[in-house]
Design a protein that fits this description.
The strands form eight sheets. A five-stranded mixed β-sheet has the order 2-7-8-9-10, with no helix packed on it. Helices cover 10% and strands 47% of the residues.
C-alpha cells in the first residue's frame, strides 16, 4: 500500500509539474506576444523630408489651412499672400499678394484673409475679414472674380455641383456659383446669439445635402442647389435667455459616419442624429470645443480638460480616457495606422494606441505651437502658428 501511494504521489507530482511548466510557458508566450505587439506599435519614426517658412501671419483667429492639390501645397497668409509649394521639395513655386502694396491706410486691413484656400478645377478660393470671396486661377495667378458675401468668413469652404458654400458671421449660409461668383441663394440660420463664441462650424456634405451647425445650437440639413430646409434639430435650449451660460454654439464641424450625423455643441451636448430625418439616436454630455474623429465605430475627442476620450459610436458610451496630457493644451487630432496622433502648444507631436489609449511616443517638431496638420497618405504637412512648414514621412517599422 505504501508503494502504491508513493507511485501515486510521484505521478501526481509529475502531472502538476507538467501543468505548471505548460502554464508558465503559455504565460511567458502570451507576455512575449503582447510585448512584441506593443513593440510594433511603438516603432514609429518620423523622417523629415523638408522644411520651409512663409511670411508670418498676423496672430488672430482664422481658418487658413494648407490645401493639397495635384502635387502642390497651397497656403494663404492672413496678410493677403497665397503660396504654391512643391510637395516633393518644399520649394515655393509662386506666390501672389492680394493686398495693394501702395495702401497705407487702416481701411486696407479689410483685405486680410481669414478662410481657405480650397481648390476646384484649377481655381482657388479664399475669404477675408470683410466678407470678400476671391477666385484665383492657379495657372495664370490672376483674380477671376471677387464677390461680397454677408460678412466675415470664419468657416472653411465646401464645393458641390459648381456651388461654393459659404458660412459667414451672422449665421448666414450662402451658395455661390463658383465659376462667376454670383450668389445663388442665401439662408438666415437664425438670429445671432449675443453670447456667441467667435468662430463658425464648417458645413459637411452628404451627396447633395449640406449639414450645418449654427450659433444657436441648431443643426440642419439643406439642399445644396437652393438651400431649402430638409430637417432641423435643436441640440439644447435654455429657459433663461439672459443667463451668460446660454452659449450653445456649434463651432465644431459635424461628422457623418454610417449614415449618422454626430454633432457637438459648446454647452456639452453631444448627439447622434439620423441623417435622413434628424431624429435623435442618442444624446450624451461631453464637453469638446475641437473637431473630433470617428474610426471603426469609435469616436475620439479632446474634452475641455485636455483629456482624450474614446466613445462607442453606436451608443455614446465611454470606452477609455487618456488624461496624461491634461496639463497641456492639445489639438489637431487625427488617426493613422490604428494610432491616434495629436499636438500640444509646445510644438510636440504625440501618438497613442487607439484601442486602449496607451501612450506610445512623441516627437518635438518645433518650439512654437503647431497650428494645423494635413495628412496626405503616409506624409504629414505640419504648419506652426508662425507659418513654418514641415513635411514628414511616417515610417512604421
Amino acid at each position: 500500500m505504501k508503494i502504491k501511494l508513493s507511485k501515486l504521489t510521484i505521478l501526481i507530482f509529475i502531472f502538476c509539474s507538467i501543468c505548471l511548466i505548460s502554464c508558465t510557458y503559455e504565460k511567458k508566450s502570451f507576455l512575449h506576444q503582447n510585448n512584441n505587439s506593443l513593440s510594433k506599435l511603438e516603432k514609429i519614426k518620423l523622417k523629415l523630408i523638408w522644411q520651409n517658412k512663409i511670411e508670418k501671419n498676423n496672430i488672430f483667429f482664422n481658418k487658413l489651412n494648407p490645401f493639397y492639390y495635384k502635387g502642390f501645397l497651397y497656403l494663404a497668409n492672413s496678410n493677403g499672400l497665397i503660396y504654391c509649394i512643391n510637395i516633393k521639395t518644399g520649394k515655393i513655386i509662386w506666390y501672389i499678394n492680394l493686398i495693394n502694396k501702395s495702401c497705407f491706410f487702416s481701411s486696407c486691413k479689410d483685405k486680410y484673409l481669414t478662410s481657405g484656400p480650397i481648390i476646384s478645377n484649377n481655381y482657388l478660393y479664399v475669404g477675408n475679414q470683410q466678407g470678400k470671396i476671391f477666385s484665383i486661377n492657379i495657372k495664370t495667378k490672376s483674380i477671376i472674380w471677387i464677390q461680397n458675401v454677408f460678412s466675415e468668413v470664419l468657416s472653411n469652404f465646401i464645393i458641390r455641383k459648381n456651388i461654393l458654400i459659404v458660412h459667414s458671421i451672422g449665421n448666414i449660409l450662402q451658395g455661390l456659383n463658383k465659376n462667376n461668383g454670383k450668389i445663388l441663394w442665401t439662408v438666415n440660420l437664425g438670429n445671432t446669439n449675443i453670447f456667441s463664441i467667435r468662430g463658425l462650424s464648417t458645413p459637411v456634405l452628404f451627396f447633395d445635402n449640406i449639414i450645418t451647425g449654427d450659433d444657436n445650437g441648431l443643426v440642419s440639413s439643406r439642399v445644396v442647389s437652393n438651400g431649402s430646409l430638409i430637417w432641423e434639430q435643436d441640440l439644447l435650449k435654455f429657459d433663461d435667455k439672459e443667463n451668460f451660460i446660454n452659449i450653445n454654439d456649434i463651432d465644431v464641424q459635424p461628422v457623418i459616419y454610417n449614415e449618422i450625423v454626430y454633432v457637438s455643441s459648446y454647452n456639452g451636448t453631444f448627439m447622434a442624429l439620423n441623417l435622413s430625418t434628424g431624429d435623435i439616436i442618442w444624446e450624451k454630455i461631453y464637453f469638446t470645443h475641437k473637431n473630433f474623429i470617428i474610426d471603426n465605430n469609435n469616436i475620439y475627442l479632446i474634452d475641455i480638460k485636455n483629456r482624450i476620450l474614446s466613445l462607442n459610436a453606436k451608443n455614446g458610451h465611454l470606452i477609455w480616457i487618456q488624461d496624461k496630457f491634461k496639463n497641456s493644451k492639445i489639438d489637431n487630432l487625427f488617426i493613422y495606422n490604428k494610432k491616434i496622433f495629436f499636438t500640444n502648444n509646445k510644438g510636440f507631436l504625440y501618438w497613442i494606441d487607439s484601442k486602449k489609449g496607451n501612450f506610445l511616443g512623441n516627437k518635438k517638431i518645433d518650439k512654437y505651437k503647431i497650428n494645423f496638420i494635413l495628412l496626405i497618405n503616409n506624409k504629414l504637412v505640419i504648419q506652426t502658428i508662425y507659418n513654418k512648414i514641415y513635411l514628414f514621412k511616417i515610417l512604421i517599422i
